[in-house]
C-alpha cells in the first residue's frame, strides 16, 4: 500500500462540510509531508468548489495568524499527540479539533498573548513578613513568592493559607488549584494540606487541585518526590483500616475521591499544568468534561442541551477564560448552535 493510500485510509472519507473538510485537508497535508498523490487530490478538491477555496483560506489564515503561538514546542507536542495514529473515530475527532485549535490560536494571537507571558489579571506577589492568606478571583492567576524562596502559582478562584513558622513549612490549599515549586530545606519539610490529604516534599515541583463540587483531591507530580497521606486532622474513613500513603514521582498523579479507592496513574504533567500559561489542553475528552473545565474560568457558563452532546470527544488547545472562542470552534467542528443566551449562561444545542 502506498503512503497516500495508507493516509487516506487512516483519515477516512472527506467531510461533507467545507470548513470541516478544509481542516481535514490541513492536517492530512501536514502529515503527508509533500506526498505528490495527496497534493494532487487536494488540488482537485480545492478547484471543485468556490466554497472549498473560501473554507481553505479561512483555515490557513487562522493558522498563519497564530504562527508564533503555534510554533511553541508545548503546543506542537500536544497537537502531535492529538494526531497520533488511533482508530478511525478518534482520528476524525482529532481532525475536527484541528479547526478548533486553529480558531483558538488565531484568536489567542489577536489578543497579544503567548505561551509563558503573564495574562491579563496575572500578578506576582511576595509573601508578607507575617505569612497569611493569598487569593485569586475568577479567571485570575497569581504567583506567590514565599519567605523561603519557594514559589506558589495559583490558578483561577484559588485560596491558600501560609504558615512558615515552626519545624515545617505549611500551606493549606483551601480552594482551587496551585502549583508548588519548593525550595529544598531538608531540615524543614514543606507540607501542603488539601482536603483530607497531606502532601510532604523536600525539594520538588507538584500541582494540587481540590474539587469544586465534591471534596476530591488531585496531586500531579512534575519533578522530584512527594509523599501523600491522610491529613492528621482528617477523620478516618468509616469501616476502613489504616489508610496507605503514596510516594509519587515525576509524571504520576493521585486522585482521591469520597467513597472510592485512591487512583494512581501516569499522566502528561505538562498538559495538566497548561493552565499556568493560560491554556487548556484536551485530548480525546468528553465534551461535558471540557465544558466543565472551561466554565471554571468564565462568569458565563456553557450548558449543553441536546442528547449525546456530553459524549462527543474533544481534542485541542484553547484559551482559558475565552469561552466565546471555544463555542465558535465547537460550532464549526461539530455543527452546534447557540440556542439561548442569558446573563450567566449560554446554551449549546445541535443545529437544526
TrEMBL record:
Keyword Membrane belongs to the record: yes
Keywords assigned: Membrane, Transmembrane, Transmembrane helix
InterPro entries (UniProt xref): FecR, Ferrdict_sens_TM
Domain FecR protein: residue ranges: 135-224
Positions of transmembrane segments: 89-110
GO MF annotation: an example: sigma factor antagonist activity
Annotated protein name in UniProt: DUF4974 domain-containing protein
Organism per entry: Alkalicaulis satelles
Amino acid at each position: 500500500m502506498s503512503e497516500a493510500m495508507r493516509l487516506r485510509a487512516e483519515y477516512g472519507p472527506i467531510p461533507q462540510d467545507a470548513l470541516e473538510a478544509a481542516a481535514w485537508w490541513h492536517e492530512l497535508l501536514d502529515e503527508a509531508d509533500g506526498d505528490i498523490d495527496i497534493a494532487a487530490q487536494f488540488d482537485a478538491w480545492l478547484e471543485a468548489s468556490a466554497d472549498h477555496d473560501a473554507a481553505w483560506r479561512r483555515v490557513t489564515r487562522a493558522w498563519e495568524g497564530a504562527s508564533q503561538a503555534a510554533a511553541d514546542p508545548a503546543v506542537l507536542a500536544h497537537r502531535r499527540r492529538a494526531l497520533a495514529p488511533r482508530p478511525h473515530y478518534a482520528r476524525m475527532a482529532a481532525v475536527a479539533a484541528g479547526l478548533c485549535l486553529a480558531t483558538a490560536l488565531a484568536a489567542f494571537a489577536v489578543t497579544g498573548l503567548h505561551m509563558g507571558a503573564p495574562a491579563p489579571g496575572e500578578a506576582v506577589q511576595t509573601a508578607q513578613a507575617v505569612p497569611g492568606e493569598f487569593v485569586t478571583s475568577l479567571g485570575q492567576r497569581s504567583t506567590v513568592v514565599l519567605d523561603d524562596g519557594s514559589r506558589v502559582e495559583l490558578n483561577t478562584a484559588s485560596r491558600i493559607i501560609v504558615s512558615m513558622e515552626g519545624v515545617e513549612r505549611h500551606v493549606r490549599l483551601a480552594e482551587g488549584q496551585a502549583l508548588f515549586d519548593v525550595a529544598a530545606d531538608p531540615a524543614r519539610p514543606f507540607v501542603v494540606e488539601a482536603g483530607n490529604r497531606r502532601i510532604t516534599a523536600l525539594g520538588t515541583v507538584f500541582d494540587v487541585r481540590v474539587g469544586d463540587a465534591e471534596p476530591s483531591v488531585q496531586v500531579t507530580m512534575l519533578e522530584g518526590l512527594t509523599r501523600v497521606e491522610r491529613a492528621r486532622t482528617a477523620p478516618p474513613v468509616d469501616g476502613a483500616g489504616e489508610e496507605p500513603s503514596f510516594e509519587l514521582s515525576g509524571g504520576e498523579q493521585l486522585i482521591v475521591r469520597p467513597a472510592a479507592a485512591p487512583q494512581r496513574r501516569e499522566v502528561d504533567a505538562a498538559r495538566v499544568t497548561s493552565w499556568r500559561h493560560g491554556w487548556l489542553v484536551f485530548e480525546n475528552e468528553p465534551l461535558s468534561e471540557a465544558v466543565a473545565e472551561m466554565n471554571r474560568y468564565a462568569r458565563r457558563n456553557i450548558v449543553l442541551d441536546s442528547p449525546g452532546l456530553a459524549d462527543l470527544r474533544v481534542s485541542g488547545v484553547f484559551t482559558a477564560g475565552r469561552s466565546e472562542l471555544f463555542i465558535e470552534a465547537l460550532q464549526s467542528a461539530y455543527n452546534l448552535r447557540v440556542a439561548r443566551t442569558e446573563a450567566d449562561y449560554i446554551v449549546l444545542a445541535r443545529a437544526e
